[in-house]
Amino acid sequence: MSSLISHEMELIADEPQRKPRSVALPATKTSSKALKAK
Fold it and tell me: Which domain of life does the UniProt lineage start with (predicted)?
């Protein structure tokens, strides 16, 4: 999981314009986790 976050951070640092998209991805993952928890 840590490597995934590092990879995302690298993408964000590489392409700042892609930041909104990178932020949306983790948000979706969090939503899936919340749904699973329920």
Answer: Eukaryota
